[in-house]
Amino acid sequence: MRIRGVIPEKAGRFYVNLLCSEAPGSEAALHFNPRLDESAVVFNTLEQGTWGQEERGSGIPFQHGQPFDVLLIATEEGFKAVVGDSEYHHFRYRIPPARVRLLEVGGDLQLDSVKIF
């Protein structure tokens, strides 16, 4: 999938969740969470109401006031995050991607488009 948008000037963080159902507290096969307020990008899962071990990408490829383009690609081993033209992080599956039913995007961002392919 491709997610495009703009990071507002005073943004703190935003998220992309790949959820296993529409139920509140649903398991998340992927929690992609750029945190501009911490200069970090966190990757995680939510299983049976418990967050897993956080993984953090190297540096933060997002800037206040700037557009962004993120590709989240399901590979054989995990989700590959590509930001702009550069591979950023590879997050190994903890929950099979076939269980994903819902995409949730929110937080401090101006969302321009989401394409699933």
TrEMBL record:
It holds the Pfam family Gal-bind_lectin. Keywords: Lectin. Signal peptide: none annotated. Gene3D superfamilies: 2.60.120.200. PROSITE patterns: GALECTIN. The keyword DNA repair does not apply. It comes from the Eukaryota. One of its GO terms (molecular function) is carbohydrate binding. Residues 1-117 form the Galectin domain. Coiled coil: none annotated. This is Galectin.
